[in-house]
């Protein structure tokens, strides 16, 4: 008798195995196909995304053609483009907007800057600049904005004709910048109130001098107004009345004192005419 299975037996086993495979496909076929389909779909998406990204980063369609600016007054587009190293032909998808804004913000006149990509091939830049309202002596001469911030050194090309704020030094500013800016803001507030009350050119404000507990004004004609402490608005209104009265009398004042602590309503005037310089005059 031969060892092993007979040929008929082996044929029966093979047929059973094939039938078992067919049954497995019949019972699990949709799930298997679904997994295969998802795997294939995911692969196609990844490949498509890589191809799309490569196309976007190299296509001439997204090469920078133009940069538009809004809000420029003292800063120039040439200066800002140079700071940002922004040139024609750069790919818009590769531009780092945050880095461009930081680079342009180095320009001393810029207060804020916002860069926006305009697909397919443009960039817009919107800026706001510091508004110069005065100059301050802080070791060197600085430009002040409306917040009392010394945002840049004065340069010959600035062409500024603004009141000068004196009485602070650089060491004091560095030691306590918050307190220094508060004093600068108080000086600017008085200068603004003065401009509203005295718009006439002959009495244009030249200097605001910060003193220990008060301040003084100096006009372009050299007249000195000592405000002292208290409500500056009230004192400036009193100053306007004194000037009108002096003008009616044909007199000019060299110094006007509004800093009488004992009698705040009194005004002492040093007349600049030779006949009155020896004695001065007082007004109520």
Short description:
Helices cover 40% and strands 24% of the residues.
How would you describe this structure to a colleague?
The structure is a single chain. This protein starts with 6 loop residues before the first helix and ends with a strand. The strands form 2 sheets. A 10-stranded mixed beta sheet has the order 6-5-4-7-8-9-10-11-12-13. Helix 2 packs across helix 3 and helix 5 (177-197) packs parallel to helix 6. Residues 1-5 and 275-281 have low confidence and may be disordered. By secondary structure, the chain is α/β, with parallel strands linked by helices. The chain has 6 helices and 13 strands.
Which descriptors apply to this entry?
284 residues; alpha/beta; 10-stranded mixed beta sheet; 3-stranded mixed beta sheet; elongated; disordered N terminus
Query: What percent of residues adopt helix (DSSP H or I)?
Result: 25-40%
What class would the helix/strand composition place it in? Answer: alpha/beta
Major sheet characteristics? 10 strands, mixed
Number of strands: 13
Distance between the termini: 147 Å
Mean pLDDT: 84
- Low confidence ranges: 1-5, 275-281
Main sheet strand line-up: 6-5-4-7-8-9-10-11-12-13
Using the CA coordinates, give the radius of gyration.
40 Å
The topology string of helices and strands comes to HEHHEEEEEEHHEEEHEEE
Helical segment count:
6
List the helices and strands and how they pair.
Blueprint: H1 7-58, E1 66-70, H2 77-84, H3 97-104, E2 110-118, E3 122-129, E4 134-138, E5 140-144, E6 150-153, E7 164-166, H4 170-175, H5 177-197, E8 205-210, E9 215-219, E10 224-228, H6 232-249, E11 253-257, E12 267-271, E13 281-283
Parallel strand pairs: 1-3, 4-7, 7-8, 10-11
Antiparallel strand pairs: 2-3, 4-5, 5-6, 8-9, 9-10, 11-12, 12-13
Helix pairs in contact: 2-3, 5-6
